[in-house]
Design a protein that fits this description.
Layout (H helix, E strand, L loop, with lengths): L4 H27 L41 E3 L5 E3 L6 H18 L24 H7 L5 H6 L1 H4 L1 E3 H7 L4 H5 L7 E3 L10 E5 H12 L2 H45 L19 H5 L1 E5 L2 E4 L13 H13 L6 E7 L10 E9 L3 E10 L2 E11 L24 H11 L8 H16 L2 E11 L5 E9 L7 H11 L6 H7 L9 E6 L8 E11 L2 E10 L4 E10 L19
Antiparallel strand pairs: 1-2, 3-5, 4-5, 6-7, 7-9, 8-11, 8-14, 9-10, 10-11, 12-13, 13-15, 14-17, 15-16, 16-17
Helix pairs in contact: 11-14, 12-13
Length: 574
């Protein structure tokens, strides 16, 4: 049963009277003597009142010595005490003593008032033994016992826990008015920033107010955790992808170093591999399932990038290695390719039917998509009825002249009755050298042939040089290689330009044939304008069988930017 205020007052008065009696009793004992006429031992001081004995003399055998004032010496932290010659600043000393006193007063707990009603009480158990740190920092009246018994409400949280568990931001936590916090030395390292501690129930109240409710906080927490998990998985997948890429490149480099190196004769452009054999030009390396890499690339003379027919044929070789060989194809060139970096071909099967298989091939170089091809593989059906165009009437290949021989004749005899300039002579020399080293032989059958209905055609005999009896799938890959020769370039001659610059999309439909024999390539352009041209082509065997139909759309621009101001023949833009 608690005491009444009068009873508490009486207890305090009795305590003061008892202390006064005890003090009088001690004073009486110290002033009286015992039976021997001496003061009691308990009241005798260690130093007597009348010390008249002389000071002890120092033994002369110890030698001389110096006397130091230790109050004026400082510790050098190296095992020595050094004299400080600086004069003591009395004002500074007083300020330091005052600061020390204030620090001592801050650490002291305020006294308990005699009137218990005037003492602050714990808001949980009404005890007057409150924790003054909680009161001064957080403004929370709670005793030390309640802080230990109710950690779910009065425990302290670090700033990291507030940010991770309650999704609070750093500016919110640094606001002393909104979120009071206690600063303590960092336990991990003294040089780190001070640790910020927050009261749990105050953090929860602020978080419920910010997010609306505890359920809303849980929803936001789950969303962020899912987003963090997706980001982590994406980063892991990206790292795994890069690791696989580096592994494939390492394996490819080892195989590349160990394989046979083709050696060719000297050339003016010595930094580029030549392709005297069609098998070398079409060769690809299988890295994984549906993944292939080019082994050598070729850039024609005065061209911007890799020969497009080689990219088409290598993509077709990659697709043929994944399905049964019989096909028609359609492809797009997105940008030119560089011979300095291998091209990676990725084959994807789009549709698997009983008679047809559709595949797509993507060519990637330096992380960029440069080429897309869609090819359709079909089982042969020779029993179906057939119909084709008749082969044009041209001279047989034995009576036609090779392109390199024509270029050499131009260099000896001149072009169109005029001697060649130094620049044009160098052009014809480069083209003749390239044609001799090319795996495809080309003879001109007819150039700029105009029919009775006004259609202009270009016709060439083409043949793969010195190839064995390859199977039909590889023969079709060779045909896709030569199908890009002279194709879009003929559009410039049809519309009156001199050279070609780039290509767009290609289409090719193929039947059975042999590229080791001469094939007649007939080319025509039904429409050219606005900087673009459409080319159609037919490939006939010597016997007149139409084995392939090609179509290509490409960029065909003259080196002009507006209406022509003279009647001179425009030149193609290089």
């Amino acid at each position: 049963m608690p005491l009444t205020p009068d009873q508490v007052k009486q207890v305090e008065l009795n305590r003061l009277r008892a202390k006064a009696r005890q003090r009088d009793r001690e004073q009486e004992i110290s002033s009286s003597t015992n039976s021997n006429g001496k003061r009691p031992m308990g009241t005798t001081s260690a130093s007597g009142q009348n010390q008249k004995a002389p000071r002890l003399q120092r033994d002369s055998r110890l030698g001389t010595y110096f006397e130091y004032d230790l109050s004026k010496m400082v510790n050098s932290k190296g095992g020595f005490l050094l004299a400080d010659d600086k004069e003591v600043d009395e004002a500074t000393r007083r300020k330091e003593m005052e600061r020390e006193r204030q620090r001592t007063m801050q650490n002291m707990e305020p006294p308990i008032h005699l009137d218990l009603d005037k003492n602050p009480r714990c808001q949980e158990c009404q005890s007057i033994d409150i924790d003054h740190t909680y009161k001064n920092v957080f403004g929370c009246l709670v005793c030390k016992r309640c802080t230990k018994e109710k950690p779910e409400r009065y425990s302290l949280l670090t700033k990291t826990e507030c940010k991770e568990d309650y999704l609070l931001t750093d500016p919110e936590l640094r606001d002393q008015e909104a979120m009071p916090h206690l600063l303590k030395a960092n336990p991990h390292k003294s040089t780190f920033a001070n640790m910020m501690l927050f009261l749990r129930y105050q953090v929860e109240e602020f978080a419920w107010k910010k997010w609306g409710s505890a359920e809303a906080l849980d929803v936001e927490y789950e969303r962020r955790m899912a987003e963090k998990k997706r980001t982590k998985n994406k980063k892991f997948e990206q790292g795994l992808k890069e690791l696989r890429k580096r592994t494939r490149e390492g394996v490819w480099q080892k195989r590349k170093d160990a394989e046979h190196k083709h050696v060719f004769g000297p050339d003016g452009d010595g930094d580029q591999a030549e392709h005297a054999q069609i098998s070398t030009a079409l060769e690809v390396e299988k890295l994984e399932v549906n993944l292939f890499r080019s082994k050598s690339l070729w850039v024609p003379v005065r061209a911007r990038g890799v020969f497009g027919g080689q990219v088409i044929s290598q993509a077709l070789v990659s697709a043929t290695n994944c399905v049964d060989p019989a096909f028609g194809l359609h492809c797009y060139f997105l940008t030119s390719a560089s011979p300095a970096t291998p091209i990676v071909y990725f084959v994807e099967r789009l549709r698997q039917g009983r008679s047809y298989v559709a595949c797509s091939v993507k060519a990637i170089q330096k992380g960029a998509l440069i080429f897309i091809m869609t090819c359709s593989f079909q089982k042969p059906e020779p029993w179906q009825p057939q119909k084709q165009w008749v082969i044009p009437d041209v001279l047989p290949p034995e009576q036609c002249e090779l392109e390199e021989d024509i270029y050499d004749r131009y260099r000896r005899e001149g072009y169109q009755g005029k001697p060649l300039s130094e620049k044009l002579d160098a052009y014809f020399g480069d083209w003749a050298s390239e044609r001799r080293k090319s795996p495809i032989a080309i003879k001109i059958a007819k150039v700029h042939d105009t029919s009775v209905d006004g259609i202009v055609r270009y016709m060439y005999w083409m043949q793969a040089k010195n190839i064995p009896e390859y199977e039909t799938p590889f023969q079709k890959c060779i045909l896709s290689y030569l199908s890009d020769l002279k194709f879009i370039g003929s559009a410039f001659g049809i519309i009156g330009l001199d050279r070609f610059t780039s290509r767009g999309s290609n289409s090719l439909g193929i039947d059975s044939f042999d590229c080791g024999d001469w094939l007649l390539y007939v080319m025509e352009s039904p429409r050219a304008g606005s900087g673009r041209a459409i080319m159609h082509g037919q490939l006939y065997t010597r016997s007149g069988t139409l084995v392939a139909v090609t179509s290509q759309e490409g960029v065909v621009r003259a080196n002009i930017r507006g209406p022509s101001i003279d009647d001179s023949k425009p030149a193609a833009k290089l």
